[in-house]
Structure formats: structure tokens, C-alpha cells
């Protein structure tokens, strides 16, 4: 979203409602406020209270980071803290996320932030990084850049066009949903990498697999994401574990043989 230094709270509210493709009547009905009051808030004729902003943000599914922007634009103190992952208050959650990745061994798992930057990973991801250029695996690592860059995993991804289309769709959707300029720039960067063929799904597949060459082996994975749905800290709200599972028995056997 635009900087709160130049954007009023009324403009931000209107922008979020438009982004969610809601009319004033639809949002007012969901939030149990009058359309007149909502109209006054969007034109700046009324100043929203903290409770009203929270109510509207909840029904607009505004991320916690952007909810703080709404508060600041309204002249209110931010409502949601952003602590470091090692902060004492976050230790229970960060330990739980770490335990998920450790328990997923010997299969790869990553802890990612809102922009697909790798915050942590388990040891099973080491084989994924073999042969990747140093400039892609030196921290901070971006999982999407590492995957689709021609100096990264891309040359070893058998169904590159199909997987590339899947990832681009994910980041494009999040960019449009959140209005995040950093995600917008990431979409443009990823789209500039080679790989146009979307490929054709195999009829027996139920998910889009990541098909990867590792030595003489052809490995097939699908991924499952886990998030903390009840987060009220920005850091936790923006984290997720991406766990990769074998999509077939030969992949499972090959991974177990690498132990």
C-alpha cells in the first residue's frame, strides 16, 4: 500500500474495499455499520475510531502490517507489535515452527516470510542447493528467486514451465491481494526469467508436482503450507512452513536412501 505519510485513512479504506471487490453496501452489511457512516469514513467527513478500524480491517482481511498503517494514518498508535523471531514472547511459536521442520526430516522444509525469503530450513534442503550459484544461496535467500533463476534450480526442474506458472500465479495473487510494491517488483523479476511453456498436467496427478533432477534420480514433490492462524504479532503472522512431501514411492525411496 502507499505510504501513510501521503495517504489518508479514508483513501486507504477505500483502496482496501476496492481491492476486495466489495461495494460500500456489501462491506457495511458485513461490518454491521450504516452505509452512510462508511461513506463518511471513505470521504474523510468522519474520523474512524480504533474499534471501527479494527472491525473494517477484519472484514476486509487486511494483514496485520497494513492494519498498523491504517492506525497510523488515522493518527492512532499501531496495534500490532513486530518482534524479532528470537524475542522471548515468540519463543513458544518459533520453537513449534522449528519442531515441525525437524520432524519433517528426511524431507525438505522451509520457514518462509511474506516475501518468500528463507528464514530457516532443515538439513534435508541441502541437496536442493547443490549446483546453485553462490549469489542465490548467500543470505538472504529468496526461495522463488532460487527456484526460477537460471543459475538456481531451474535447469534441474523437469517441469519448469508448469512449476514456474504455478509459482508466478501465487506471488501475483498475493501482490494483487495485498498491494505490496515489493511483491509487485518480485513478480516482474521472476517473469523476466526464461521459461514460457506451461506444460500439461498428468491426468493421474492430483497436485502440481515439483519434478527435480538430483544426480541420476528424478524426484517428485508436492508441498503443504502451515501458518499460525491466530497470530497478533506481525512477524508470526507473516511466517509459514513450506513442507515438501514425496509425490510417489520412488521419490520416497530415493530420499530415504540418501540418509
Automatic annotation (TrEMBL):
Residues 13-67 form the HTH cro/C1-type domain. Pfam families: HTH_3, MLTR_LBD. SUPFAM superfamilies: lambda repressor-like DNA-binding domains. PROSITE patterns: HTH_CROC1. Gene3D superfamilies: 3.30.450.180, lambda repressor-like DNA-binding domains. It comes from the Bacteria. PANTHER family: BLL4672 PROTEIN-RELATED (PTHR35010), BLL5781 PROTEIN (PTHR35010:SF4). This is Helix-turn-helix transcriptional regulator.
